[in-house]
Amino acid sequence: MFQKNLWRMESITTRNTAPIPCLVKDLNLRRICSRVVEKFESTVLTKLDQLRSGVIHDDLNPANAVVEKVETINGADLYKLSGLIDFMEMKKSKLVFEVATMIAFWMCLAQKKKFNRKLVTKQVLEGYERHLCLSDTEKQCLNSSVMARLVSYICSATSNLNNRDSETQDSNYVLRLFDSTCCILRSLWADED
After folding, report:
1. Please, are residues 174 and 160 in contact by the beta-carbon 8 Å criterion?
2. Domain map of the chain by residue range?
């Protein structure tokens, strides 16, 4: 129940994340997760009425995106999003949460593949805004929303693993970006402090 509820960004509150101490064993990471949730609750959830809503995929991570190579420039392959799969999390929610989810997980992939995560973040945001620009309020909420999405993934993944055999295929899927997620969250939080 904790895992499913926490994936919904509007549910990332200090009350709903009270189990963090039981889930996150690393004391520093636990402190960061708690502080991120407090900041998200005070800076984003208080502005929900100012954020636009729409139907969002809500799990737009690299495993759920179909990309195709469009060209190579100076030895760097450039890709474009050509399709989406896995619509199980699709719901009506805040548009900025969709962007936050995309940025969070594409940063994690960039970290894992040793890409420039800031460039990946810029490209994801530019790609999204070619179709729909974020408002100033949404942009102000973006960084906290990205960090909150990372916290929700860390807690959900840890909860999932505590309830399953760690050698299952599902567990491997859940863990594929876990270390990168923790690293990115630590780095983003350090930039905030």
Report:
1. yes
2. 2-56+91-192
Residues 24/152/130/90 CA torsion (nearest 10 deg): 150
Whole-model pTM? 0.88
Contact by Cβ (8 Å): 95, 56: yes
* pLDDT tens, N- to C-terminus, the chain (193 residues): 444 567 889 999 988 887 777 778 889 999 999 999 999 999 999 999 999 999 999 888 888 989 888 888 888 777 788 899 999 889 999 999 999 999 999 998 888 777 788 888 898 999 899 999 999 999 999 999 999 999 998 988 887 766 655 555 555 666 778 888 999 999 999 988 6
Would you call 54 exposed, middle or buried from its count of C-beta atoms within 10 A (0-12, 13-18, 19+)? exposed
